[in-house]
UniProtKB/TrEMBL annotation, chain A:
UniProt KW Transmembrane helix keyword: yes
GO terms, biological process: proteolysis involved in protein catabolic process
Identification of the protein by name: 20S proteasome subunit PAC1
Entries under InterPro entries matching the protein: Ntn_hydrolases_N, Proteasome_alpha, Proteasome_sua/b
GO CC list: proteasome core complex
Keyword Transmembrane helix recorded: yes
From TrEMBL, chain B:
Function statement: Component of the proteasome, a multicatalytic proteinase complex which is characterized by its ability to cleave peptides with Arg, Phe, Tyr, Leu, and Glu adjacent to the leaving group at neutral or slightly basic pH. The proteasome has an ATP-dependent proteolytic activity.
Record text on subunit structure and interactions: Component of the proteasome complex.
Highest taxon, organism lineage: Eukaryota
Family in the record: Belongs to the peptidase T1B family.
Entries under InterPro entries matching the protein: Ntn_hydrolases_N, Proteasome_beta2, Proteasome_sua/b, Proteasome_suB-type
The protein's name: Proteasome subunit beta
The UniProt record lists the keyword Nucleus: yes
Pfam entry (one): Proteasome
Keywords: Cytoplasm, Nucleus, Proteasome
Stretches for region Disordered: 210-240
Organism of derivation: Reticulomyxa filosa
Location in the cell: Cytoplasm; Nucleus
Any GO BP annotation: proteasomal protein catabolic process
Any one of the GO CC terms: proteasome core complex
């Protein structure tokens, strides 16, 4: 899990009209011509891609670990070779699952099911001796008619999660505590200081509970964002996301936000079109169109 | 000699099947329900989470009609499909759409076709909250077609022409049931062996309903199609 934190960052944002994902591009040398994106893969027409990664799995006794202690450039190459292959296996597996589902039901596979299947596969490599787990963590962006746009994150252990707002629950909890304290203070004041009949206190109590539910409903309606980051400096990226995300983001705003965060997570100070992928995922009428383009 | 037909109306789909179980020249049973619900519970409401966190109820229900060639195939196959759907629901926490169920069924028939074929023809009627009512025609050779009106077996000879004439797009339920009566009457007129009892199942946004229809006792010359010739060559069902 720690090793995963060291690879280049990927982050995804769900907004009203689609999903934006950006990833850092590794460029080893100017002579190297990337044939395809090693960070993004298309699973099906609706689940687009899983984004991949991460390398540098450290073993106590393997050759990989010895190499990783050496120069950074060399380790990266080795690591990418090793891990991109892990990722390819998983991508193939997911594509196969998606295609099988489509053959059987003539319908696109639900996003969560696809993630679930792949995670089950990943998990089996953590359970038995002699097998090396996949050194890959992924972000999945997908769309289905039931749930709309979805963003999932899965890691080498086979856990996966769908990204929703975290501080929303904290807010609700705080409001709840405030209500409770308020009620108890009221009871104390009324009973011991003013001496009012208890049924009035009960009424106040009910009011407080009503207040709590109103707050809850308001929160449920307004609080809703889905965004996450994986890779190097993922935590700082997540904290920026928490501050800057709001549900009214437009496509341009979202791209801008992604790029801004990606810049902050990278080691090198400058970010240009050579160094990142931007992926935009949106539905086109009945079918879904996905575009790869560079900025 | 089984008769099974169905059509799609405005916000509902219905299927009709006769209730007789014949073997050779003998009728073994008169009250056999040949229509199986693909989901046992009626009118289940499925909740889906939307992006704005509001729960939206959604009815997702269908009937599944299976016409027999042999009784064993019908029971066997319908249970097989039912259990598979249930398993899918338990495993994935979501329900298949009618489209997916039809293709799944077809796939199963096609897989079995070359080894131990199921001798079943079926009509699948269903209602999806988004897609509306639908009717699928599947035969024992695993051909699948989404249709507005369909009939299986010998009754197709007469009923398809009747549908062409009387079926209209977006028929309401009242007109639909009139058409069903017309069909039953026609079957009773034309076939050597009369089918006495029919079961009609309707699926719409509220779930499924069942209506049983008796073949009309009195023969009346209401419809142009069924007008009898001047000289009575054949006996009407009431004489039997």
């Amino acid at each position: 899990m720690e090793a995963i934190q060291k690879a280049g960052a990927c982050l995804g944002i769900v907004f009203k009209d689609g999903i934006i994902m950006v990833g850092e591009k590794n460029i080893q040398s100017k002579l190297w011509i990337p044939e395809r994106s090693e960070k993004f893969a298309k699973i099906d027409s609706h689940i687009v891609l899983s984004v991949i990664y991460f390398l540098r799995y450290k073993y106590d006794h393997s050759k990989v670990s010895t190499l990783s202690i050496k120069k950074k450039q060399i380790t990266l190459k080795v690591a990418i070779a090793g891990v991109t292959s892990d990722a390819n296996i998983l991508v193939d597996n997911a594509q196969l699952n998606a295609a099988r589902y489509k053959y059987k039901y003539q319908e696109s596979i639900p996003v969560e099911m696809c993630v679930h299947d792949t995670c089950n596969y990943t998990q089996s490599f953590t359970q038995f001796g002699g097998l090396r787990p996949f050194g890959v963590s992924m972000l999945w962006a997908g769309y289905d008619t039931e749930e709309g746009f979805q963003l999932f994150h899965s890691d080498p252990s086979g856990n996966y999660g769908m990204f929703k707002q975290i501080h929303f629950f904290i807010c609700v909890y705080i409001i709840y505590i405030i209500c409770v304290i308020y009620v108890y203070v009221c009871m104390y004041v009324y009973i011991f200081l003013i001496n009012i009949r208890p049924n009035i206190i009960l009424a106040i109590n009910n009011l407080m509970i009503a207040f709590f539910f109103v707050c809850l409903i308001i929160l449920l309606d307004t609080a809703e964002w889905q965004a996450t980051a994986i890779g190097s400096n993922a935590k700082s990226a997540q904290s920026i996301l928490k501050e800057d995300y709001n549900e009214k983001l437009t496509k341009d705003d979202a791209i801008e936000l992604c790029i801004k965060i990606l810049t902050k997570t990278m080691d090198s100070p400058s970010l240009d079109s050579e160094k990142c992928y931007v992926f935009f995922f949106k539905p086109l009428k009945k079918n879904l169109l996905n575009n790869f383009y560079k900025i | 000699m089984d008769a099974a037909f169905g059509f799609v109306g405005k916000d509902y789909a219905l299927v009709v099947c006769d209730c007789a179980v014949p073997r050779s020249i003998v009728v073994m049973k008169q009250f056999e329900d040949k229509i199986a619900a693909a989901r046992k519970k009626r009118g289940i409401t499925q909740y889906t989470r939307k992006q704005n966190n509001i729960l939206i109820g959604k009815v997702f229900e269908l009937i599944f009609l299976i016409e027999i060639w042999a009784n064993k195939y019908r029971n066997n196959f319908s249970e097989y499909i039912q259990r598979n759907l249930k398993w899918y629901e338990m495993r994935n926490g979501r329900k298949l759409s009618n489209h997916a169920i039809a293709h799944f069924t077809r796939n199963e028939l096609a897989t079995a076709l070359r080894s131990s074929p199921y001798m079943v023809n079926l009509l699948q009627a269903g209602y999806d909250a988004k897609a509306g009512p639908c009717l699928y025609y599947i035969d024992y050779l695993a051909s699948l077609q989404k249709v507005d009106k369909a009939a299986h077996g010998y009754c197709a000879f007469f009923l398809l022409s009747l549908f062409d004439r009387h079926w209209k797009k977006d028929m309401n339920l009242e007109d639909g049931l009139k058409l069903v009566d017309m069909c039953i009457k026609q079957l009773n007129n034309r076939f050597l062996i009369n089918m006495k009892k029919f079961v009609v199942k309707i699926v719409d946004k509220d779930g499924t309903r069942e209506i049983s229809r008796e073949a009309p006792r009195e023969h009346k010359d209401e419809d142009v199609e069924m007008k009898e010739p001047e000289n009575k060559l054949h006996r009407s069902p009431s004489d039997v």
